[in-house]
Amino acid sequence: MSEQLDILIFGAHADDAEIGMAGTIAKHTAMGYRVGICDLTYAEMSSNGTVETRKEEAEQAAQLLGLTVRTNLGLPDRGLFVTPSHIERITAEIRKYKPRIVFAPYWQDRHPDHIACSALIQEAVFNAKLRKYLPESDPVNVENMYFYFINDVYEADFIVNVTDYYETKKAALSAYRSQFITGQGSVATPLNQGYIERVVARDHLLGQKRMLPYAEGFVSKLPMVVDRFD
């Protein structure tokens, strides 16, 4: 029987979740939260690296972040579409791990797979609670769903102070050597032309708004609930 998660993060490719929220992941696993990542594809269309390389890098990043579980649905890279079969696969993953909180990529991004992933997760989170949808498994009502940024940053609804865990984020990103570091036989892509440095600058600028060294931003489609103002 699978272990129930507190947080389940979806990405189209291994490294998506790390780019957007590795600091937040590390912060929560350090506090004892059970956190998992589900990558939808093996990123087989990547210009650099191989599927096997990407699997090894994803596992290394998972260990650095203290994940409870990391899975991959093996859906087609550059073939993600809002189809019944894709929604079913993702819904089954949500029902398997019963997370209280789900994260998905923000719905605007330069990469079409990130946009498709966002739409798919929203559909699956909704369907997961329907008793008559895939009735062979029990419905799951996700308490909260939030969105993280990958390539393109928009206005955040809230930020998480990740200063104490930022070195872990950089280590997790550096695990993806095939993507972020130019090596023998690699070709130039936006990812290996100073991408990690730009992510660090982004998170530093976001934290600066609240006098924090580093922060990661998130969006909620629903109003945030506040019990009191401190």
From TrEMBL:
Protein name: Bacillithiol biosynthesis deacetylase BshB1
Recorded GO MF terms: deacetylase activity; hydrolase activity, acting on carbon-nitrogen (but not peptide) bonds, in linear amides
Pfam families, alphabetized: PIG-L
Biological processes per GO annotation: bacillithiol biosynthetic process
Gene3D superfamilies recorded: LmbE-like
Domain of life: Bacteria
InterPro entries, per database record: Bacillithiol_biosynth_BshB1, GlcNAc_PI_deacetylase-related, LmbE-like_dom_sf
